[in-house]
Design a protein that fits this description.
Blueprint: H1 3-6, H2 11-23, H3 28-35, H4 39-51, E1 55-61, E2 69-74, E3 80-86, E4 90-97, E5 102-109, H5 126-140, E6 145-152, E7 155-157, E8 162-165, E9 175-176, H6 177-185, E10 189-193, H7 194-205, E11 214-219, E12 223-229, E13 232-234, H8 265-268, H9 270-280, H10 289-294, H11 302-310, H12 314-338, E14 342-346, H13 348-352, H14 356-367, H15 370-373, E15 377-380, H16 387-400
Parallel strand pairs: 3-6, 6-10, 11-14, 14-15
Antiparallel strand pairs: 1-2, 3-4, 4-5, 7-8, 8-9, 11-12, 12-13
Helix pairs in contact: 2-4, 3-4, 7-16, 9-12, 11-12, 12-14
Amino acid sequence: MFESILSAYSRTQIIILQQIYRKRKITRAELTEATGFQLLTVTKSVSRLLADGLIAEREYRQSTGGRKAALLSVNPDYRYTLTADIGASCARIGVVGMDGSVIESEIIAAEVHDNGNTVPARHVTVAQLRAKLTKLIRKYGREKILGLGVGVSGVVRHSSGQILFCPNIEGWNNVDMQKEFAEPLGIPVFVDTAARCMALAEYTLGAGQGVADQVCISIGTSVAAGILLDGKVYRGADEAAGEIGHTTVRADGRRCTCGNRDCLELYVTTPTLLMQAKRALPAFSGFSPLKTIVQGRAYPTPQELQAAAMQGDKLALEILQRCAETIGTAVGYLTNILNPNLIVLGGATIDFFPQLVEEVARISQRSGFTVTQQNLAIKPYALGTLSAMIGAALQVIDAFF
């Protein structure tokens, strides 16, 4: 796919380029040790890559004596990757450099329905996204665009570039990304679930750097997991692994958008928490700053629910505690099955209620098997709301290297 760009380079030069990309920052001496090539070979290859603009020499490592060692890294401006994170609350469209840095981005918020919810989301259509990406290609120049990476909140067949099922987003069921984007735009297109993209970003640049076995769980308007085993994204036999949001966690009989009942997604997403507050507030007679904050409106905002919890509002605290209990129990089950070293929690629910991370960790310890918990860490994601968008781009960048 990228053979035409790299065809001018020898196998030795490509190996050195790959090492620089993987290490992020590395000296010539460290390259010699990592590759087993002689220093002269490394020096010549580095000179060629520097001259062609694939890599850059912009920093120096503090010396313990003698000259400071120059640090080599991939040139972020050598090529750019178009990227889109198509979520249930918004779509994020952007441009990412070769090092994963965000050059520019745009947010298109979902329309809010009469019931205060955004599901199923209505924001950017296939045609609108294609038009926006066409403008970006014109802006940067087609020769500078490496490809397009897309993450979507739905079921995806990564191997063929198809979005199969998006119950929470209007207009994105059964979309052939090759036909709709790769062919008309004339660039390579990679697509995966937003949760897997988030996991890839956190593993490469965020909270999960260097942890080979980890799970990244995105909890926002929907719930899904990205699984990495031995440093590689695990998609499953039918490429549907990670749908933790559609596992049954209760027996209330509530129907989910996927067609099943009592899915995790029905109890821990941000809209669900606000719905719980709306239903409980009228009959609640205890201490409740939330009642005063809301002042007769149907729904509190996430910020208002968090502010009330911080003031000791009993109802708000109960809602968030039930949320933590449900997530923590699910995480405990997940760790029993996969035995990862790290769980990364991200998404809007974690952004609004960061205290959930510590409580989920406590509950997971209680509900999980002791052996699977002893070396387990649970952290919030480090790249925040841009995580899935960056990870979508890294699909393309990783494929290049």
